[in-house]
């Protein structure tokens, strides 16, 4: 089981090098991350975009473009489509957003003809290395699905389990997080949590252990769970926190990012290949972590085929 991002990087370097297609690659922070990923043996890259602008940025950061394949396309939407096509046709293993707005990028990802649709719901998974914890904590969904219904949460769980498996967690513990740890008909999230737990008991959701509802303290702290008399295989030991909606997920994600000395990386899954969708506010380290995670997930998906 991988317990921190240093182990993530070491694991990726031990695997066959994956290739990432960068959509509209003329973006300085993205090219810096791609350059370092190449130098550290984490991933190769195909750069899709305006070649002249890519060369200008590369000159600024001292990037040797002779080590990278460049696909010329000055139109941003077409560049995004081309990058997606490289992944869907197997010429690249994963996808990364460059200097293009998220809406147009995702339109290319979900294109019916050459996109990365699988029939599963696409969802966002954040992976955190938090000081004081002996394991990586996965949080979903903080960025993409706003108010998931039960059927959506089933896919969100399955997507996060794929990421957990890539980290060496054979049976990740999933905590559907709610405000309380008891089922309350007036609180729909607790009802969803109980149904997800029963579906897992019956083998309808495989590859993990789901138990809930659990309040956040009972999901992360064995001491808090014991104090409240909350028992079960997930209480205090959660690997995956399934948040009830985008507000709670986003607040949790940003609270960890801005108030703790954590390390993190995130990606979109539920697609036929992992998608790196970084924020401009993400640090260089976070972008690198996201690329490394995507490489691990790409390796896992290839084993699942």
Automatic annotation (TrEMBL):
Highest taxon, organism lineage: Bacteria
Phosphate acetyl/butaryl transferase domain sequence ranges: 74-295
Keyword Transferase recorded: yes
Keywords of this entry: Acyltransferase, Transferase
GO terms, molecular function: phosphate butyryltransferase activity
SUPFAM superfamilies cross-referenced by the UniProt entry: Isocitrate/Isopropylmalate dehydrogenase-like
Similarity comment text for this entry: Belongs to the phosphate acetyltransferase and butyryltransferase family.
Name this protein carries in UniProt: Phosphate butyryltransferase
